[in-house]
Sequence to fold (180 residues):
Amino acid sequence: MRIKPGETMKTVSLAAAGTALAAGGTAIGMVVYAVLQYARHPELAAGRLALEHAIHVAFLMAPIYLAMLVGFHVLLLRPIRKLESELYRVATGHSGSVSLGSRVRELKAVERAANLMVQRIDMNAKGAAGWPDAELAALAAVAGELQSTSPEVAERILGASSELRHAIASFKQRQVAPDL
Fold:
């Protein structure tokens, strides 16, 4: 289903969608069963047969609905909400591994992917932490060499490198803890 720019898609709870599908499937199965039973035993009254199957559907659908609702909540929704919380934690600059506490295979795969992402963010942050220091030290060395022959140029180089150092530090700070 394509969504046009500017349109929003209606959201639905995973538990509600899954349990509604299961309840609908159960109801369809029971209707098909009732039709087949009526075809095999036409002597049974249609009203009695419908009532009998309505009772079966009600008794089957209620526990199936509750079991699926609880199952979806425990196995999927709770870990997905925890993942959302963990990813917000990472996005605000707090490092550390992501743990969902789930045994669901697909969620474990998402957990591994999130931990790989965190690991790479940490590696990039550590690699970028010392990035300009050598270059800025080289500029300071050049300024020191020029101090005796061209003090004005040396001062300009030192001033520019100081401004650059502050700008880079500010940039790094925004990268570690962006505003959410």
